[in-house]
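Side project, low priority. Logging it here so it doesn't get lost.
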Amino acid sequence: MRAYAREIAFTTVYSYLMGDENPQTFEDVIKVENLSEEDFEYIQNVLTKVKENKNELDEIAKTLSKSDNLEKLNKVDLALIYLSISEVSYLNTPVAVSVNEVVSIAKKYSSAKGPAYVNGILGEFFRRTNG
């Protein structure tokens, strides 16, 4: 079930990055998606960590993408990168689990080059941080 919860977490992070300051209320998410309490908490924690650390995540994305303008980056890819970095760095998710899952989500939601791009950015980040 965590893979499904991660996909829902991705959609909430994506909504947040697209300017929705209050993505679908958590109560709505748990009702509509029929999530367990554990999965609901996971989603809530991911979004909270992304919000709390957005400036740091932005700087990481700028550095690794070699782009000063995050507006040029695919928001789907950016949301997946922020999701993975947040869950590994702040929620103690194993690197391999997180990267494999977000690359799978990228295959579903991103461009043809998205999965390789997300994998490359995350690989570089976790190499640099010994994650």
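Brief comment: The chain has one domain: 2-128.
Revisit when time allows.
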